[in-house]
Amino acid sequence: MIKIMKYGEEPNGKIFARSVPTADVSGIVADIIENVKANGDKALKEYTEKFDGARLDGFLVSEQEIGEAVNAVEPKFLEILKRASENITKFHSRQVRNSFIINDENGIVIGQKIIPVDRAGLYVPGGTAAYPSTVLMDAIPAKIAGCKEVVMVTPPNSEGKVNPAILAAAYVAGVDKIFKVGGAQAIAALAYGTESIPKVDKIVGPGNAFVAEAKKQVFGAVSIDMIAGPSEILVVADSKSNAKYVAADLLSQAEHDKMASAVLVTDSYELAVEVQSEIEKQLPLLSREEIARASIDVNGKIIVADSLSVVIDIANEIAPEHLELCVDNPFDYLDSIRHAGSIFMGRSCPEALGDYFAGPNHTLPTSGTAKFSSPLSVDDFIKKTQYTYYTAEALDRVAEDVAFFAEKEGLTAHARSAVIRSEDK
Q1: In Å, what is the CA distance from 194 to each residue of 38, 40, 43, 151, 180?
Q2: Which of 7, 36, 111, 414 is most buried (most C-beta within 10 Å)?
Q3: How far apart are CA 388 and CA 383, in angstroms?
Q4: Rounded CA gap, 105 and 99, in Å?
């Protein structure tokens, strides 16, 4: 049963302590990465047979397989994918940055170029956690950014097939190449390349502990989006909130993972008790009851505070991945929320809207990292290059200043390079 606690009476004085897996998989992952680096496709085939039970001759998903998947999914689902894609495209198109140039001084031009990474790699989980929504959320910003190639990896089933819903989403999102490989070995393949799978410049997408550890280890050889932890939701709700709706929203994240966290922060003890009871009523109705119950029992919390302003302070301290503002006039509180991955405004905005359809990205910072990081966006698939141009006359005007500055740092070669051209005149 979810626990109710009064703010200020928490164990050890902590508002909320996340419970995260402690198993160290770094050694296993390091061995997998080194094997893939050394043996390429041969290692991938061995791991795919070992972990996925599939014996593959090749990894590339064919156009025929994609076509079959598109025809296999329900027409209604394909239409929803397209509508969701339109919403995601509309939102992320507003994130596009422009290059700039400044030439308001005689003989001086400075500027910045926005350049997409050449090749983006998307990791999409398979098996029991097959999320076509992740395909849309990761691929569409990369395409909008202008990446030359978007490559996706996802594990096959024991028959060597990829979930048709995932392939249909990749088709709608415009993914260029899809490979049947998962786990840490897929991350290694994207980071270093194999005979079949091209090396990418950026890897994005969620995964299990092995995938997260692999992303951590290959960072530097390639860029990554983030190290994602278990999913989180924090609901801010007042006494007017419907306990049935709040409970349903909390359970929507609890069913993701036994380590997921669902937290309600409220100024109403009566609501807290009603939500606690309602969760128990709704749990048996869920297809993933066992997972959701484990999440609620381990990481579920209801925190009761004296006022809504204190509730907001608690939300900022926890810095959740998903934050629901179940209050009247939610825009009155928007500026007060400083730390959250994504905010869902009002009583008619369940977090599931963001997972699938609304448009803002659902790849979000977890584990309190919303205090210093951001949702996945077009920015994740670009880099910035700056440039400087001075005429000879413009350099003459500042050469002595540059040299003086350089000498203050003891760098006489720097100083010399600034003035040597003037000395030759």
Answers
A1: 9, 5, 10, 13, 13
A2: 36
A3: 17
A4: 19
Of 424 and 293, the one with more pLDDT: 293
pLDDT one-digit tens code per residue, 88-102: 999 999 999 999 999
Residue type, 209: A
pLDDT, position 84: 98
Per-residue pLDDT at 349 exceeds 80:
yes
SS3 for 323? Answer: strand
Q: Which pLDDT value is given to residue 83? A: 98
Beta strands at 108-116 and 100-105: parallel, antiparallel or unpaired: antiparallel
Which tokens go with 61? 């998903």
321 is catalytic: yes
Burial of 109: CB neighbours in 10 Å, binned 0-12, 13-18, 19+: middle
Q: What is the DSSP annotation of 131-144?
A: -HHHHHHHHHHHHH
The mean per-residue pLDDT over the stretch 107-134 comes to 92
Exposure string over 345-357, b if 16+ CB within 10 A, otherwise e: bebebbbbebbbb
Rounded alpha-carbon distances, angstroms, from residue 276 to 4, 6, 115, 240, 422: 8, 14, 50, 16, 78
- Helices 164-173 and 132-145: crossing angle in degrees, nearest 10, is 20
The answer to pTM > 0.90 is yes
Of the candidates 235, 179, 237, 187, which has an alpha carbon nearest to the alpha carbon of residue 207?
187
* Strand bridging mode 3-6 / 301-304: parallel
Active-site entry in 321, 324, 351, 362: 321
Cα–Cα nearest to 192, from 121, 274, 130, 265: 121
Amino acid at 151: V
Q: Give backbone dihedrals phi and psi of 347, rounded to 5 degrees, phi first.
A: -85, -5
Q: What phi and psi values does residue 306 have, to the nearest 5 degrees?
A: -80, -25
Q: CA geometry: angle at 18 spanning 16 and 21, to 5°? A: 165
State the CB neighbour count (10 A cutoff) for residue 159: 9
Query: Is 49 an active-site residue?
Result: no
Alpha helices in 256-408 (DSSP H): 269-282, 289-299, 308-318, 352-356, 392-408
DSSP H helical segments within 73-223, as ranges? Answer: 75-93, 132-145, 164-173, 183-192, 209-218
In degrees and rounded to multiples of 5, residue 188 shows phi and psi of -60, -40
The string of pLDDT tens digits covering residues 301-346 is: 999 999 999 999 999 999 999 999 999 999 999 999 999 999 999 9
3-state secondary structure labels for all residues of 382-419:
EEEEEEEEECHHHHHHHHHHHHHHHHHCCCHHHHHHHH
For 152, the 3-state DSSP assignment is strand
